[in-house]
Amino acid sequence: MHITANTDFQIKTLRIHPFTIPHDARDPVGFSFFSEDKKVTVATDIGHMNDLLVENIKDSDLLMLESNHDIEMLENGRYPVVLKRRIKSDHGHLCNNVAGETLVKLASQGSKRFVIGHLSHENNCPEVAYKTVANLMMENGFAVGESVELHVALRDETSKVFMV
User: Fold this and answer.
1) Whole domain around residue 144: which residue ranges?
2) pLDDT value of residue 63
3) pLDDT tens, 75-134?
4) How is the chain split among helix, strand and coil, in percent rounded to 5?
5) CA angle, 114 as apex, 111 and 117 as ends, to 5°?
6) Distance (Å, rounded) from C-alpha 152 to C-alpha 81?
7) Does residue 5 lie in a domain region?
8) Looking at the domain assignment, is residue 55 inside a domain?
9) Is there a domain that residue 31 lies in?
């Protein structure tokens, strides 16, 4: 099967919507999964947020969004300059701050359950990613653990099971 952005396909009762993401790969996509009246979205390998991407990920009952790197850790890390530029480019990866700002925007539109993931092993850690995103949410009036849920998908462990 060839997957094409913005062309839905079906697996039994599960409708899958692939959508374009800005990354330095050939025709990369994120996915929203629909079953009955529920929507679960996975969006990683994102160089920057744009209106089309926000339109595709909004209204998810559960969203996993990339929170790849901490800017300071990346800038002070051991990666070569060319790789640092690629990661920070519009076709690289989302930093914790942009992920947090995006989740604030989505929470203000009614979304409540978020997982941040695709954390860099070299340039991020779960505690830093969570703290950065949670602080941005709290600064904007969202009580993490009360009005919104925020979880971190770890690189080397199975995450919790989410019911939607």
Assistant:
1) 39-152
2) 98
3) 999 999 999 999 999 999 999 999 999 999 999 999 999 999 999 999 999 999 999 999
4) 30, 25, 45
5) 145
6) 28
7) no
8) yes
9) no
Q: Would you put residue 117 in left (φ > 0), alpha (ψ -120 to 50) or beta?
A: beta
Q: Is residue 140 part of a domain?
A: yes
Cα–Cα distance, 36 to 139 (Å, whole number) = 34
pTM for the whole structure = 0.95
Give the Cα separation of 39 and 163 in Å (integer).
Answer: 12
Instruction: For residue range 42-70, list pLDDT tens digits in order.
Output: 999 999 999 999 999 999 999 999 999 99
Q: How far apart are CA 68 and CA 121, in angstroms?
A: 9
Which residue in this structure is represented by tokens 């559960």? 62
- For position 112, what pLDDT does the model report? 97
> How many domains, the chain?
1
Give me the pLDDT at residue 50, please: 96
Specify which residues 38 forms β-bridges with.
35
DSSP character for 13? T
Question: Which of 55, 78, 69 shows the shortest CA–CA distance to 118?
Answer: 69
